[in-house]
Amino acid sequence: MGASATVSMQIAAARPCISSSTRVSTTKMVSHVKASFCGSYHALSSAKHLSLSSPVTRSTGKLITRAMSQDTASSGSYGLPIDLRGKRAFIAGVADDNGYGWAIAKALAAAGAEILVGTWVPALNIFETSLRRGKFDESRKLPNGSLMEISKIYPLDAVFDSPEDVPEDIKTNKRYAGSSNWTVKETAEVVKNDFGTIDILVHSLANGPEVSRPLLETTRKGYLAAISASSYSFVSLLQHFLPIMNPGGATLSLTYIASERTIPGYGGGMSSAKAALESDTRVLAFEAGRKASIRVNTISAGPLGSRAAKAIGFIEKMIDYSYANAPIQKELSADEVGNAAAFLVSPLASAVTGTVVYVDNGLHTMGIAIDSPTLA
Question: Which residues have C-beta within 8 Å of that of residue 332, sequence separation ≥ 6?
Answer without folding.
Answer: 301, 302, 303, 304, 322, 359, 360, 361
